[in-house]
Design a protein that fits this description.
Length: 434
């Protein structure tokens, strides 16, 4: 690592330099990230498939260098720049549900100082072997890899999701795995030595924790965002509570919306609010002044617009989706995740995305896109019956489609806006559900 960092410094790269890092090999990519940091530069991990034009689009910044191949080792003994907690030492991308990457920069301490808390809550130590089964362009997986090395553990970096027998082989030697919720069942079906699964990126599916318990795997789930890092964690199934050193508030939405889906089923509920957090783990912001959901107030609190039920300190945080994905239909506000949670339980539904499609009088019509093979997809009548039994009238989808595979962003979450765009464009792969 020292030799690679020395090579970068001799190229003139040091504090203030933004370095694009995108070798195809995940191990070489991680070496380049650490070497750039050791040289004092700011590494920005990107997709190896991007060309220089694409890099310019997603950064809007002058890149001091572009690393897309293994770095050479330069011998020597010159000292490294002094590492300071406030250095802008990490930069990564967030696509959210839109699929459009934004580059986010953060200080070194905003990640590294949280490592000890995660070690304690998840029980991870230097004897562990940590499987990081995703692309390091995702901040979720990049953090997982860097944390594993800082803890002294061994990191396994396949660079993407290892399917079939490859997954079994990787899990056979791993004691910890980082996954997104829809991948957890695949892990649990494989015999192996995994004892802890850290699950982030979206809400756990119903029954996931019980299935993990039956397989002897402890699930540690968490809620956060690339802009905010850790916000809340559930280490024992008792619900999400603030991650150490994090303060949480759920505030009324600034657009005046009163989102309270589920009133007809469960009685009157207080309106949902936006989750705000204040902590040492927050990012500095977006590169090149890019627009994004991150907002700040004058007292150090930030939000990305996620919705939750009313919250007081000491309570469990009950998330209800993303405010900017809410569907306005006929004067009602529908949170897509609420609908997806009910319909995901229907046999034959591998996954589901709910979006709003434009409607001349309603504003939008609730539309469901089911991920399933067409020959084994659930019948529309079953889905509609489930919707009638568990959803308010405004929440029930009026249009139903099926697709063999939903598009996903780098963290594994369905790319909601891309699904909506493909529907609007008449994508022939998305077919109406009979």
């Amino acid at each position: 690592m020292d030799g690679a960092a020395r090579h970068l410094r001799r190229l003139g790269l040091g504090p203030g330099a933004l370095v694009a890092v995108a070798p195809a090999d995940p191990v070489e990519l991680l070496v380049a990230v650490l070497a750039a940091d050791l040289a004092g530069a700011t590494p920005l991990v990107g997709d190896p498939a991007w060309d220089r034009e694409r890099w310019g689009q997603v950064t809007g910044e002058h890149l001091a260098a572009h690393i897309d191949a293994p770095l050479p080792h330069v011998p020597g003994h010159d000292p490294h720049p002094e590492a300071r907690p406030g250095d802008l030492a990490w930069a990564c991308f967030s696509s959210g549900s839109t699929g459009r990457p934004r580059a986010i920069v953060r200080t070194r301490a905003s990640w590294t100082d949280s490592y000890a808390h995660l070690d304690r809550l998840a029980g991870i130590g230097p004897d562990d072997v940590v499987l990081v089964p995703g692309p390091l362009v995702s901040s979720l997986y990049a953090f997982a890899a860097l944390h594993a090395l800082a803890t002294g553990a061994t990191a396994i970096l396949p660079g993407r999701w290892p399917a079939g027998r490859s997954l079994a082989a990787h899990l056979a030697g791993a004691s910890v795995v980082h996954v997104v919720p829809h991948r957890l069942p695949d892990v649990l079906r494989q015999p192996g030595s995994v004892r802890v699964a850290l699950v982030g990126g979206a809400a756990l599916e119903p029954g996931a924790r019980a299935a993990a318990d039956a397989a002897g795997v402890r699930v540690v789930s968490y809620y956060g965002a690339t802009e905010m890092s850790f916000v809340a964690m559930d280490a024992d199934g008792g619900g999400l509570r603030p991650f150490p050193e994090v303060e949480i508030e759920v505030r009324p939405r600034t657009d005046g919306s009163r989102t309270g889906s589920g009133e007809a089923r469960t009685g009157a509920q207080a309106p949902l609010g936006e989750v705000w957090a204040r902590s040492p783990w927050l990012a500095e912001g977006y590169l090149a002044g890019a627009a994004g959901p991150l907002r700040r107030d004058g007292d150090g609190w930030v939000t990305v617009g996620d919705l939750a039920e009313p919250y007081r300190p000491g309570q469990v945080l009950r998330l209800r989706g993303r405010g900017d994905g809410a569907i306005q239909t006929g004067g009602a506000t529908v949170v897509p995740e609420d609908v997806e949670e009910v319909l995901r339980k229907v046999p034959g539904v591998a996954d589901i995305v709910v979006v709003g499609l434009p409607h001349p009088s309603l504003g939008a019509v609730v539309t469901a896109v089911v991920e399933a093979q067409e020959t084994s997809a659930p019948r529309r009548a079953l889905l509609e019956a489930t919707a009638r039994g568990g959803l308010d009238a405004a929440q029930r989808p009026r249009r139903w489609f099926v697709v063999p595979s939903l598009p996903r962003n780098p963290t594994g979450k369905p790319a909601r806006a891309l699904v909506a765009a493909r529907l609007a464009g008449g994508d022939p792969e998305i077919r109406r559900l009979a």
